[in-house]
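Lecture 7 notes: from sequence to structure.
We start with the chain below.
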Amino acid sequence: MNNFRLRSYSKAALSLLVVGAMGFLLSTNAWAQTFGPGIFQGIIQSDSNNDESFGFITVVLSRTGTFSVRFNLGVNGVGQHVYSKSGKFDESGHYHFEGPEPISTRYAVARIIDLQLDSVSSPTRITGDMTDLTHSSTVEMERVAVATLANAAPEAGAYTFLAASGDSGVPHNTGFGRLLVSGLGHLIAVGRSADGRPFSQAANVTVYDRWPVFAKMAGTTNGILSGWLNFQETAGSDFTGQLTCIGPEVPGPNHAFVPEFSGNTSVVGSRYIVPVGSPVLNVDSSSNNVHLTLSDGGLETSINRNLTLTAGNKFVFSPRLTGDSLVVNPATGLFAGTFLHSDGRTYPYRGAILQKQNRGDGEFVDHGGEGGDVSLTPQ
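Predicted structure tokens for the same chain:
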């Protein structure tokens, strides 16, 4: 009997010891902590005008706090500008990295990286900073929104957008583009800057209904657009925001390259619904119902023309002068045309229809590289 009691007591004591040991381990070891897994996307940016301080970044986080990160910096394809790393957040959601100094390089190499989760168990943002000891940048990421075919992203659809700047030194003409958002929240955008440089980007809508923008202009050193755009349906727009615009690099002092300009550009976007049996702009009459204006871009004076937009979305010039043409694609909301410049040359122009504002805007570039503005307004 006594032996039975002793054996029972020993088993109970052993159980208490095991439970206590497990609790101690769970409270003191980081491996036992569960992180909220997910994919995060965002941008690297700074207050400088050096493109090496800007980039796009993606983090894939696991439940154990380990992660993989991929980011790119700057516009140049030469040198080390694309990085892939792995790491692990500590129990407070912090990550710190310090790398060795490169032997010799004139290109950005991330030496110090600090990242912080806003929550360990259910993170939605990652913030931080990085530096190569020459260029210092801040990092801002947001969790990518999860959508399914049965529960599509509310932003899904087609959009057109316009980008114009009021900053001194930045081209004051109007850039434009087209955005497609899939039911899964994937973004694909193509467009042209205010001075006619093409760009494209792929990204994802975040849980905060935002679009992280980092787009390199076509070419090797042609500049960038960077910033955040916010999706919000209003009477006049469906997404808006302000982007940093850094112009093409030109030769600078000490054999370096510096941007031709740097400033901000304001973006406004609108859902684009393909018109069926109606014109792309709401007009009040059947003739001379649209006004075309071309200005700046080396023109001696602005060009003003009255056109007729038909129900079949054909533009009719009356009278039609040398060089006149204008067509619109009703499926995309993008338009293109030509005109005779005051310098005697015929130039192309391009733009987009913004349906919610019932107008079209775009740009042209003259022989000397000076940008001009194009506008289509109903009358």
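Points to note: The radius of gyration is 28 Å. Confidence is low (pLDDT under 50) at residues 1-31, 103-107.
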